[in-house]
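Dear H.,

Thanks for agreeing to be a second pair of eyes. The structure we're designing against is below in token form, covering all 650 positions.
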């Protein structure tokens, strides 16, 4: 009996243990199922809708309570992102990817991602009112917007946050002349390859450029769009871009295995192109309707002709479209800096010029159309040009000198995004000067001396090293190219040729103030008030007293020292002779006085906050600048022309 009792007790204990294990398992299953049901109920209360764009800011969200920094790439992709192939064309804005690349995706820490219902237990015991919640959400959203825009400008040189909110296929305002709207073009125009090079371009601007071309270029002319990646590092330009492009008809993506720069990247695209005409386009452009046909027509009529549309401007802050006033042409100054020059008076004199192409001494690099065979025969882009800058001026001089021509076509319009600053730093801070040196030594002959006097940094670099231009000089000889004197007299006679006489040119140094006469860059060619500023030593303050008694200012020599009342100003130089008396000056070397011949008064310098010593009561004490005063021997009326680069030095 005792043994039987022990056995019965053991069986009872085992049964109880199994029962407890069964109950524990049932409880765990119940907890898991309840969690699933709860999540399903929460999802059922959310409004269904299309997948949000990555990093899209939500305009009104009363149930969003916590703002979480976007540090996790999974958050940047969005909570409910659908597969890439199901996205509409204007819904994908930024999708970083690590597939197929060793480069991690670029984190956008300044962007905010709003998550619903996160960290509810961390709220204060007294719940906020609806007004307080709305105000908090608005403040958070506004702060996120400001942070995002600041980060975007720093990263890309324009307000990418605004660009992301604009459709990739937006409609542009009509800015063409009415006579352009009814023009008919041949159906047998040559085929075209549009080459778009990019390096770490923003997703929205790059894809807006591509879609703009696809939507506006006639399919029977557009052979292909070639996207050429110049070794971009941003994650969204890796496998995600490859996947996106694979769904676009007629678009090919070419990747360079090393950094080529603008010229090399475009040359790579041209080598792979199949179209009869090449259109090189920057990666942040938007095309007007019927922009391509006028360009192709001009090239078809003359295969040595290189053409550009009117380049309208997209504002870097607001992305507003700003039309450029016609007529316009491309020019450069003696520092080899490029400008678009507008001349509306030309159209007033000749109304028929509204739709006529204008010969242009140079073309910008934003959009250029050129026959593919002529491009290669004339030497393509100079492979010795480094990274970025000046390649369009080198091509312009070469095309004109070696048998081609250049035009701006008014019935073609393309808008170009005007950057606030370059989004990257050059590995060599003197890179632009080295490119300019290459142009000067290859194409400018003896006139390169004028360039070196206005870019002293280039002069000193040239003194220590010489560019290897042997191949380009051989090309120049083989093509039978004309010299730079022919270019100046035939193509660009409007460019003033400085005389740069010894002791009568250079920085205009004032003895009394220890400063130089100055006119801030960026004030345009309409002229304005002269001032005094520390001598730069760069050549940017260079002026030239010529044999016409004009004091010509600046790298283009298009502004002359003038007077307005008793104030010295700059005004556009006359195009006809003789020079008006108010623009005539005489320099007395012995005393250092610069005498205005019409008034017989002397030029006197006054620093800001000072007053002229000769007549202190006549000028506001807070006003600085250059003034006409009765001639004395005061040091503020003593001037010297400091020639930083001697004639024999070049």
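And this is the sequence the design step returned. I haven't edited it by hand at all.
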């Amino acid at each position: 009996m005792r043994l039987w009792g022990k056995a019965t007790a053991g069986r009872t204990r085992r049964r109880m243990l199994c029962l407890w294990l069964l109950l524990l398992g049932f409880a765990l299953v119940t907890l898991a199922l309840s969690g699933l049901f709860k999540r399903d109920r929460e999802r059922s209360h959310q409004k269904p809708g299309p997948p949000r764009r990555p990093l899209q800011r939500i305009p009104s969200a009363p149930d969003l309570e916590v703002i979480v920094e976007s540090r996790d790439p999974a958050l940047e992709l969005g909570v409910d992102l659908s597969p890439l192939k199901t996205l509409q064309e204007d819904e994908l804005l930024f999708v970083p990817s690590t597939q197929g690349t060793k480069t991690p995706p670029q984190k956008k820490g300044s962007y905010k991602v709003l998550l619903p219902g996160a960290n509810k237990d961390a709220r204060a015991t007294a719940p906020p009112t609806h007004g307080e919640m709305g105000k908090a959400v608005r403040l958070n959203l506004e702060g996120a917007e400001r942070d995002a825009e600041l980060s975007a400008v720093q990263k890309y040189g324009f307000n990418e946050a605004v660009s992301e909110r604009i459709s990739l296929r937006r409609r542009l305002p009509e800015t063409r002349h009415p006579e352009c709207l009814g023009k008919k073009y041949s159906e047998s125009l040559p085929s075209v390859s549009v080459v778009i090079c990019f390096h770490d371009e923003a997703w929205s601007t790059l894809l807006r450029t591509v879609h703009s071309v696809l939507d506006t270029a006639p399919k029977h002319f557009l052979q292909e769009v070639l996207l050429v990646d110049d070794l971009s590092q941003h994650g969204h330009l890796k496998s995600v871009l490859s996947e996106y492009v694979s769904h676009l008809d007629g678009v090919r993506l070419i990747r360079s295995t090393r950094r080529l720069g603008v010229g090399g990247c475009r040359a790579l695209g041209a080598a792979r192109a199949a179209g009869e005409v090449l259109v090189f386009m920057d990666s942040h452009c938007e095309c007007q309707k019927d922009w391509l046909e006028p360009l192709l027509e001009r090239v078809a009529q003359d295969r040595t002709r290189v053409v550009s549309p009117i380049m309208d401007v997209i504002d870097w802050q607001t992305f507003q479209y700003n039309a450029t006033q016609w007529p316009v042409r491309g020019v450069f100054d003696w520092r080899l800096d490029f400008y678009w020059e507008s001349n509306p008076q030309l159209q007033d004199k000749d109304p028929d010029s509204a739709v006529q192409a204008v010969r242009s001494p140079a073309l910008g690099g934003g959009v250029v159309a050129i026959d593919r065979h002529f491009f290669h025969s004339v030497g393509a882009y100079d492979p010795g040009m480094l990274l970025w800058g000046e390649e369009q001026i080198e091509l312009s001089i070469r095309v004109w000198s070696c048998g081609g021509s250049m035009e701006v076509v008014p019935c073609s319009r393309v808008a170009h995004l005007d950057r606030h600053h370059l989004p990257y730093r050059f590995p060599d801070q003197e890179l632009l000067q080295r490119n300019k040196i290459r142009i000067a030594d290859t194409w400018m002959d003896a006139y390169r001396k004028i360039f070196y006097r206005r870019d002293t940094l280039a002069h000193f670099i040239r003194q220590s090293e010489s560019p290897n231009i042997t191949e380009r000089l051989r090309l120049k000889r083989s093509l039978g190219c004309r010299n730079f004197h022919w270019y100046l007299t035939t193509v660009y006679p409007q460019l003033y040729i400085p005389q740069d006489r010894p002791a009568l040119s250079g920085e205009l140094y004032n003895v009394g103030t220890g400063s130089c006469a100055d006119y801030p860059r960026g004030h345009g060619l309409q002229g304005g008030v002269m001032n005094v500023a520390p001598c730069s030593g760069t050549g940017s303050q260079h002026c030239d007293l010529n044999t016409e008694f004009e004091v010509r200012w600046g790298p283009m020599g298009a502004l002359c020292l003038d007077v307005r009342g008793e104030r010295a100003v700059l005004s556009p130089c006359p195009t006809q002779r003789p020079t008006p008396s108010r623009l005539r000056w005489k320099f007395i070397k012995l005393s250092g006085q610069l005498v205005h011949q019409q008034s017989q008064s002397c030029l006197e310098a006054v620093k800001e906050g000072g007053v002229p010593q000769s007549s202190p009561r006549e000028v506001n004490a807070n006003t600085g600048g250059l003034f006409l005063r009765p001639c004395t021997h005061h040091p503020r009326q003593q001037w010297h022309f400091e020639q930083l680069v001697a004639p024999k030095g070049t």
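Two observations from my side: Residues 152 and 160 are 5 Å apart (CA to CA). The first helix runs from residue 2 to 45.

Warmly,
E.
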